[in-house]
Amino acid sequence: MHEPLAYYLTKLQTLASVGTKRDKFYKKLVGERFVDLLWHLPSQLCFRHRIDHIKAAPENSLVTLEVTVELHQPSLRKRSPYIIYVRDSKQQKLELLFFNAYASFLQRSAPEGKKIAVSGQLKKDSNREGIRYQMAHPDFMGPVTEIDKWVGAERIYGLTAGLTRSIVANAVDQVIEKAAELEEWIPDSKYPSFLQALKMAHNPQSYDNLAVTDIARERLIFDEFIAYHLGLAISSSRPKSATLKSIASYDLANRLEDSLPFKLTAAQKNAIAEIRGDMQSGAQMVRLLQGDVGGGKTLVAVIAACDVVDNNQQTAILVPTEILSRQHCSSIGKALEPLGIEVALLTGREKGKVRDNVIERIRSGAAKIIVGTHALLEDSVVFNNLGFVVIDEQHRFGVDQRLRLSQKAKSAHILSMTATPIPRTLVLANHGDMAVSVLNEKPAGRKIIQTKVISADRLNEVVEQLTNVMNRGNQVYWVCPLIEESETSDYAAAVARFEMLKSIFGEKVELVHGKMKGLEKDTAMERFAEGEATLLVSTTVIEVGVDVPKATVMVIEHAQRFGLAQMHQLRGRVGRNDMQSFCLLLYGQPLTFQARQRLEIMRDCHDGFKIAEHDLRLRGGGEIIGTKQSGVPKFRLSDLVQNEPEEAKVLEDLFAKAHSIAMEIFKEDPDLVSPKGLALRQLLVLFEKDKGEQLRKSG
Ligand code: ADP
Ligand code: MG
């Protein structure tokens, strides 16, 4: 490693002003290395006024002035301050206060009778004896010749207990002073060099210099984005693997398509073609299938699975919930068993003999398509020849589950599906250069789901209307919200609503919630799916994926408690046929401004992508549910989740630009061995994105 870079990586601890004493505070605030401190940019500005005399000072302001030292009064008791009395040019008295003072230092810096400069927060105090001026712990006290250093714009750093403004500022200056230029990794740009940008960013002169549009800040933010994308590209790049067989026959898929009562949408055909292209390429497919709810993603996956079966390999379909896995298994089974394809189910509920049998059929390769929850990830599940993995509602799986899966599926193609539309920024952020197919078209004949925002006071009217709906042979979902404070009240609310509706509609009402036993849940779901029950009361367990085409009404109680994306998912449970469907958003009082705004977005907006973007923007606005799902990566120099739309736009553009630059570099020089590549290695090291590279190199 060459010298200038090593300097940036030096431990802060080695600075005398940090040492072991303050090391822990810095660790908490910024990190351990010099460069970590340098990325801690000023968060605010203040202005220090040069004044002639005290009475000219703005109230409670930071001032710098020349004074004459009159008298030192050492601390009389413990905890009482050491006081230095001074006078300004108009003989106005000022007290400089020092607690826990180091007397001989004070005497040296401010000898009695001498003119000195002081700078600090001026405080005006009035009591019975009149007005008194004080300055506690001046920021500066020293020779008059240095007065100019203590005037003008001054940066303010975010702090943590144990560190003060001037301690941090001094440490930054000290580190910057000895830093050297690094080999440039964005040559020929409008930007100042990395070091120059750091210097400028730490020396703001106006509020404009604090904005993300400031050229110095922009450069640093851009650097971090580039490092991020490049790191992601390197760590997720996949070598071509000989174990992947390319698929030659579409026989089963064609037969399946012929058996369908409808035609594939153009978007579905397109996605299938993209998937087939990937599977032919000889490299591992890692593709995200993104599509609004009801777009028919499952069918796309099943058709691809048919191709894999044709190739004599297995497909695992990983789904986030028990209910959904059962539903998928039964609908996929209905479609594929006539073609002679064995579909198996494995969830945490399959136990004993049943489980042993399923596991055996997976191991022997008899089961061709295996639908399951994360139970599929257990070590005891060994596939015979896994060729394809589908992750349905992939955002519902945690990082470590996805990792475990990729271990199991080392040489399998991977298709992740999500109905939570992800804005481009987030796709880039979480999936790097993952290929994306989009289902942006609903099957023909689907109508927009009419959405109404209704006060909970009007519950009786709502119930009345449901009678008509159900008499017409249609079905209703009724969702009660998750209540954060206690898990029991979560289903208690659903149970209470169930009881009430049952007293009106009798046996037609079913209940599903997370606390129910598996079998009970299945029975209830089945009765609803088969149309024996026409009203299903539930908690949010039905949020994802469930497909009952005859359902036309979705009632969401306490809708204000839901995240936009989640409401959109719920709404997507209806409108799955050519009838007019409705979504009724019931809200309780009081409704905050934010909450009303969100309900109105839901009423007016039917495009999942737009909703997802609103969702990101409105985060932090008191939303309980869904925040964890956002998956926005954290950056040191910027925050992609911003409430300020203009800044957000700038950052998103920069983020996308960094992505294309990183991809270009990666294509040109994947091993980073060209001069520019070598320069970029420094960037990866600085932002600690070099792990991926090491991983790749080692295996
Ligand atoms: P999602 O994309 O939300 O997972 P699903 O895969 O659950 O959507 O599909 C929704 C419904 O649409 C299912 O009942 C499915 O059989 C049906 N479907 C899928 N493709 C089509 C199509 N091309 N035309 C009509 N209905 C379709
Ligand atoms: Mg689905």
Can you give keywords for this protein?
seven-stranded parallel beta sheet, 699 residues, 5 domains, disordered C terminus, binds adenosine-5'-diphosphate, nine-stranded mixed beta sheet, OB fold (Dihydrolipoamide Acetyltransferase, E2P), single chain
* Helix-strand category: alpha/beta
- CATH class category name of the largest domain: Alpha Beta
Number of strands: 22
Bound molecules: adenosine-5'-diphosphate, magnesium ion
Question: What percentage of amino acids are in beta strands?
Answer: 15-25%
What best-fitting shape do the alpha-carbon axes yield? elongated
Give the low-confidence spans: 620-630, 693-699
Task: Please tell me the total number of domains.
Answer: 5
Strand and helix layout:
Layout: H1 3-9, H2 19-29, H3 34-38, E1 44-50, E2 62-73, E3 82-87, E4 93-98, H4 103-109, E5 115-121, E6 123-127, E7 130-136, E8 140-142, E9 152-156, H5 165-178, H6 194-201, H7 215-236, H8 251-259, H9 266-280, E10 286-291, H10 297-310, E11 314-318, H11 322-336, E12 343-346, H12 352-364, E13 369-372, E14 386-391, H13 399-408, E15 413-418, H14 424-431, E16 435-439, E17 450-455, H15 459-471, E18 475-479, H16 487-505, E19 509-512, H17 518-529, E20 535-538, E21 551-556, H18 564-571, E22 582-587, H19 593-604, H20 608-618, H21 645-668, H22 675-686, H23 691-698
Parallel strand pairs: 1-2, 4-7, 10-15, 10-16, 11-13, 11-14, 12-13, 14-15, 17-22, 18-20, 18-21, 19-20, 21-22
Antiparallel strand pairs: 1-9, 2-3, 2-5, 3-4, 5-8, 6-7
The structure holds adenosine-5'-diphosphate and magnesium ion.
